[in-house]
Amino acid sequence: MTEILPPDDCTTMIEVRAGVDATDRALMTLLDRRFAYMRAAARIKPERAAVRDEARKAEVIANVRSAASARGLPADDLARIWERLVEASIAYEFEVWDRSRES
User: Fold this and answer.
1) What phi and psi, each to the nearest 5 degrees, are found at residue 74?
2) Verdict on whether the full-model pTM lies above 0.85
């Protein structure tokens, strides 16, 4: 197994790819946690209509855009990624909400 080096210490593409793969695994862990919060939200929200919250969605995307800009990252691209992430999260929350109330 290749050692995971900080990006600035990488000297080969094998090291870069190992770092990218490790980062992708870490992102999946974080996404798993994010979707667990969607399950919690579905459990807590008493009404199905509360699942979609456009003001909160806009706030989340604005936060990402601001954080990306502050880091010198492509803010528009990351905002589009988060738009998709939030929409997937909402769809998942609807599914969980519906399943949890089937009788």
Assistant:
1) -70, 95
2) yes
